[in-house]
Amino acid sequence: MLMRTDPFREFDRLTQQLFGATTGTWSKPAAMPMDAYRSGDEFVVCFDLPGIEPDAIELDVERNVLTVKAERRPAATGDNVQMQIAERPLGVFSRQLFLGDTLVTDDIKADYDAGVLTLRIPIAEKAKPRRIAIGSGSGTQRTEIEA
């Protein structure tokens, strides 16, 4: 259904935790944490995007590649604002997922609630389980097997 293509993502995340938090010099923003699972006839992907406005999220699908882009903007802006502590990463976050051919990318539904972006991707008919009838050599007995 979903193919992971970045084997170094966990290594990058660990490196950021070890060095980025203590030195403050890590330039790559944290990845969008996600969960992905199959629920009935759809594939569900949830991204944690706290503090991001819905209009700052972009979803694009090109062939089998789903791109999620989100921008966290500064909460406090203006001439009278003096930032005292700035630990939350700002800027553009992006993540690409390579979707299998068994998913229908034309009918993706997206919902954003409480900082969680939820995508529901239907599973194609050809990927759903089906029963196949098997005939016997004499032609009198038929058995169905779930494939």
From TrEMBL:
<dbReference type="Pfam" id="PF00011">
    <property type="entry name" value="HSP20"/>
</dbReference>
<comment type="similarity">
    <text>Belongs to the small heat shock protein (HSP20) family.</text>
</comment>
<dbReference type="InterPro" id="IPR008978">
    <property type="entry name" value="HSP20-like_chaperone"/>
</dbReference>
<feature type="domain" description="SHSP">
    <location>
        <begin position="25"/>
        <end position="137"/>
    </location>
</feature>
<dbReference type="InterPro" id="IPR002068">
    <property type="entry name" value="A-crystallin/Hsp20_dom"/>
</dbReference>
<protein>
    <submittedName>
        <fullName>HSP20 family protein</fullName>
    </submittedName>
</protein>
<dbReference type="InterPro" id="IPR031107">
    <property type="entry name" value="Small_HSP"/>
</dbReference>
